[in-house]
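Z., the sequence and structure:
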Amino acid sequence: MKINVNNIIPIRVKQLPRYLWEIVIRFITLKKNSNSVSFTLCHFTCHSYYKYLYCSLHSLQKIRGGISIRVLIFCDANEMFSQEQCEAIRTVFPDSKVIPWTKSQGWGSEQIASIWKAYSLAASESRENDYVVRVDSDVFFFSNWIFQMVACSGKDLVGDGHYVNFKYCQGGFYFLRAGAINKIKRYFEENSMDEFLKKTKINVEDIAAYQFIKQTRQKCWLTFFMMFPDEYRIAGKLSTYQRFKFCCLHFVMKNKNKMLEAYLLEIINPSERDMFLKALEIQ
C-alpha cells in the first residue's frame, strides 16, 4: 500500500519554513518607521451574540495600549441590542457606535455588498493610510503586536492565511487600508460586484475581500496571527510562545461559550471576574 507522506506530516510542521520566514519579515517590518495610523474596527453582529462581542471588546481594551482605535458595531436591525447592552458596551469603549444594519454574516452577494457598504462608510471617515478592520464577535485578543506590524507594513490587505494554507485571507479578523477600500469602491462603481461574484463563484466575504484586492492589483500580505480552537486545544494554554505566534483566538465553533470559558481562564483578572460576568447577563 502506497502511503502519502503529506497526509502524515502535521500541517504545523509543513508550514514551519514559512512561519520562520514570517518571523523574519515581522521583525524587519516592525523596524520601519510608521506614520500615525488609526484603526476603525467593524463588527457585524446581533442581539444573540452580545456576550461574545462584549468579551471581544473587553479583551481589545485590555491590550490596546496607546493604539488609536474606534469601534463601529453594525447590528442586525431585526435583532438589535437593547439600550442596556449598548450602555454596557460603551463602558468598555465609550466612543463606540451601534448602527442598525442589514444582516451581514458574510454569505451571498447581498450580504457581501452590505459588508462593503459598511467598509466604505468606515473608510470615508478615515485617512487613506488608516485601516478598517473586520473583527468577528467570536474573536478575543491577547497580544497587540499585529496592530503595530500592520501600521508599519503599509499593505492594502493584511490577513491570516495559515488555516486555509494561504489560499486566501481567512475571515474573522483582517485589515484593509482605507485607500484600498476607496479604490475597490471606485472599481465597482464602474463594474458590477454581483456579476464579479457570479463569474468567480465567490459566495463568502473573506474570499471576496482577498479577490477584490487582487482584482484591483493591490498589495496583500497573508501571515500568521489568528489562533483557532484546535490549535488552542493542542497547545493546552496560551503560553508565552503562543502569545508571540498569535495575537487572538477565533472560536469558529458551534459552542461559542467555549470562548467565554477560555477568556475567563486565560485573560480575566480575578478582580474583574464578577463585573465581567454581570455584564454578560445584560438583556
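The mean pLDDT is 93. Residues 109-124 form the longest helix (16 residues).

Let me know what you think.
H.
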